[in-house]
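Hey Z.,

So I finally got round to the zinc ion thing we talked about over coffee. Here's the setup:
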Amino acid sequence: MEAGSGRAAGTAAARAAAPQGAARLAELLRSAERAVVLTGAGVSVPSGIPDFRSPGTGLWANVDPMKVATIDAFRRDPDRFWRFYGERFATLHDRRPNPAHAAIAELERRGLVRAVITQNVDRLHRAAGTRRLVEVHGSIEWSVCLRCGGRVGLDRVLELLGGGDGAPECASCCEPLKPDVVLFGELLPSRAMDEAWSLAGEADLMLCVGSSLEVFPVAGLPGLTRDAGGRLAIVTQGATAYDDDAEVKLSGDVAEELERVMAELA
Ligand code: ZN
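And the result:
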């Protein structure tokens, strides 16, 4: 027998004896020293925020976000842009964190996770108590004036939107405000991406939650962790390109799966 196949058989035997599923993920979290969580739209689905990439759901059912939520559409007609986007803001404003957000915040509080990198703009990780949060697609928390750099908070933006049907404007220069989220056609914020890349490169465990890991450059982060010798764990419904590389893959409802993991850690 070749040495290679002998080693493979040994690994398979070791795997059969090792804990599976939620118990295995709990074990990985306990033994990791620099674990990082990466989240996508799926973590907010139990909060009632549909993943706009799922066809036929929610606010995006009758519009193509690739046409509406673009930087070109904003520049061309900010009033029209805000008539659409303002609705999204108002919807997101009322949402509350769910048990998946709570579990992720608790992992950080217990020192089992260093940071959370998210593609979501909904502020729910922060609302759940996550402290080190890297929002690589920005956040609805602020809207910005592209002329003077002024920032206006969400509550004020909603007030301005409620008072008229056009774009909210900067109080100093009357320029239309742009939501501080990454629109199609915009680059990702370089400071957040730099932080995400270094966290992923240093991570000995990356836990990916609620992301199909399809949208680059964020989809490259698990590969960075893997190539640097770190482990991957995935909690998401549906297949991802990293399933074969993952030490553990949990495919149920994200909130229920993470609650099981927390029960194992209790
Ligand atoms: Zn301004």
